[in-house]
Amino acid sequence: MKFWFGKLTWASLPHEWFTIGGALSMVLAGLGIFVYLTYTKKWKWLWQEWLTSTDPKKIGIMYFVVAALMLVRGGLDAGMIWLQQSLASGSGGYLTADHFQQIFTAHGTIMIFFVTTGFLFGLMNYILPLQIGARDVAFPLLNTLSFWLYAAGALFINLFFFFGGEFAATGWLAMPPLSELEFSPGVGVDYWIWSLQISGLGSLLSGVNLLVTILKMRAPGMTLMKMPMFVWTCLGSLLLVVSTFPILTMTLLMLSLDRAFGMHFFTSNLGGNPMLYVNLIWSWGHPEVYILMLPAFGIYSEIVATFSRRRLFGYGSLVADALLISGLSMLVWLHHFFTMGAGANVNAFFGIMTGLIAIPTGVQIFNWLATLYKGDPRFTSAMHWFFGFVFTFTLGGMAGVMLGIPGLDFQLHNSLFLVAHFHTMVIGGALFGIFAAITYWFPKVTGFLLNEKWGKRAFWLWIAGFLVSFTPLYILGLMGVTRRLDHYDASRGWQGLFMVAGLGFIIICVAVCAQIWQIIVSIKERKQNQDQSGDPWDGRTLEWSTSSPPPVYNFAVIPEIKNRDAFWDMKVSGQVDKLVSGQANKQYEDIVMPKNTAVGIYISAFLFLVGFAFVWHIVWLGAVGFVGAVTCVIFRSFDHHTEFTIKSEDVAKMESRGLKEIWQLKQ
Amino acid sequence: MTEIFHQHQQENSFLGFWLYLMTDLIMFAALFASYIVLKNNNFNSPGGEELFNLSLVLFSTIVLLTSSFTCGLAGLYVEKRNVRATSFWLLLTLILGSFFLFLGYKELNNLVLEGYSWQTNAFLSAFFSLIILHGLHIAAGILWITVSFFQLRSFGLSDFVASKLRRLFLFWHFLDVVWIFIFTIVYLYAHI
Lengths: 667, 192
What we know:
By secondary structure, chain A is mostly helical. Chain A is 66% helix and 1% strand. Chain A has 2 domains: 1-41; 42-597 and 642-656, Cytochrome c oxidase-like, subunit I domain (Cytochrome C Oxidase, Chain A, Up-down Bundle), CATH 1.20.210. Chain A has helices spanning 2-5, 17-39, 43-51, 56-87, 97-131, 140-157, 188-216, 229-261, 274-308, 315-329, 344-372, 381-403, 406-412, 416-446, 452-478, 495-524, 566-572, 576-580, 599-616, 619-637, 648-656, and strands at residues 591-594, 643-646. The two termini of chain A are 47 Å apart. By secondary structure, chain B is mainly α. Chain B has a single domain (54-190), classed as Cytochrome c oxidase, subunit III, four-helix bundle (Four Helix Bundle (Hemerythrin (Met), subunit A), Up-down Bundle), CATH 1.20.120.
């Protein structure tokens, strides 16, 4: 039995209310989808059109679906945290300390790795190739593999509901020695490690893939300094991905070697050094913050330029800012633990570096404002998100500068002030950016616009909810409340502010409902809000030169780029008719596109098994998973018929049909 | 059309693989940094200067460097599209690589027989991890060479196979570079 099941026993199956609830809801959701697909006979369609697709546009949409589901999952955690803290005065509260710890660990991990990262990679998949005038990413198979690793990681992090019943109770970065076997003997930390290893590998491969895409696949004439700003910020972000995710992989590997093989990298005995882990994880962790922020900066740049009908002010300095931020972000990791006691000089260095980051960030904000000035701004809901971002980000940024001063940090370290600060950055910065991007690019993806009225309502609810829930945390932090408290003494008088924060959470829930309603209303009214031009906002960059949604090959004829804001330039110089309506002379070339492949799904499934085997110490399963994954790679390496050709006549047909037909030319 | 597509794809693959190697290098860098931090944490057990057998390591270094040389020759014959010579030098690379793995295994096994394992202390945890991680890379390289024989037999030296082989050579030389760092930072450093 031990051979077949490792540490897995009957007791590992769900038996507490939250594991039974979690497992049951996942099973029911899965069953519902299964029945629906079987009843409507859509399995084949799903498999061929979506799951095995190598089209980065479809992969991008799948990223969005998974990330949205995980947003709900992480949001539930947030609600449970808020409810506990609102009730937890004295002996109140409904959660045990251990369960509370698991919830905030899961919340942080999910929101960073599976929500924000998922949305951003989805966005990059969809928009990057279009913006640089490419038909695909550099490595289509690698792209599906990255997505499926991400999806497998997202599933893996929820697997503890079924087997084991406990997640890590260590905080989202699982600092040792707490996360070592001695103090966390259960499987929770292993689930944490392997869900991050699996999805982290996906991020790393995506990083390599998209970086090569940007560097090698730009349309002729698009020099680096003619790239749209979103592409530049993604480049900065991807450079950080490839240079820091390997550190995360290695650090987690060392932690799992400690836990599985009895090594002593970070243990508190036999020479292990827990602070080594803290240094390593933050030298990935701080750049990670900018991996999430930089693309958001790019989104705002696109939106501000489009809705001001003006060239971005200070393009060159924005490019320099993106690169400076990428570089500096790798030199500030120590500000997360000034209290380690590295000494005044070391702390001073990292404090100064942290302060320096405020300069390029500030320059960006002035550039956007200067673009608006003398521009012709239209206050659409995408612009609302931008203004909300400027407000919250400036606020959170100043709090960040405060935290970056070592002297002050000794007071604020690990307090709710810090929690409020980084939520301001991630919600007010990255998440608002993602919402802005959804509003902005939605018509490109679906062919119809989102309802503006509900978009604006959702925005006002979001910003109100955000301020109501996080302003109290700043105040509480200054009052000395440390983070991650599962209960506190009634005499402290903190409960009122915690309850205000809880009220803010409810407002945010209403805001999310407004967003869902916005999508429903927009789908209902899609006939009125159709976008037939492919360019609903009078856009400036190449993605608006295609139809909405774009054909599978993006561009029937690869455009020649003469200027920055390539599409705007074409509109102004009157070339646009030639480009959009096809190339009046009707001369198309054959187009080579990658075939669908399920190899990414198989490899991810096998690596999923490897992770499971490591969590439960099932040797044979690990061997099966590993050999399976390697075999997939080897078999694939013999296949050199991985693409097919769309004949020029077919391209002409599809272009003349307005590209609306779903395209069925697969071999 | 397809040829141009393939040509672009092979150029992309080369750059992409090169980028992957850099990420791998950063993984090693993190482990090297950890090794340097932990190398004096031997906790009353003997340190590197007593445990490491420099002459054995020097021998395995020479074996690995020679394999890089034979790998380079195989690379020259790929450009000349000479299947037989390519296979021959690849085979030699494979043999030398396997011999290197065997020597590494001997070294670690000797340590274990003397009673020092990765569980002994932090220094040995880092040491064993570094050597084994490099060894696993070599093993992956050997598997790759083996697969290449089959590809050479099925497709000859087509552009498709040649492009894969060029990446294999890049990988093999990269492992050599990493080994030079291991030799310096782990073995030589211990004797200073």
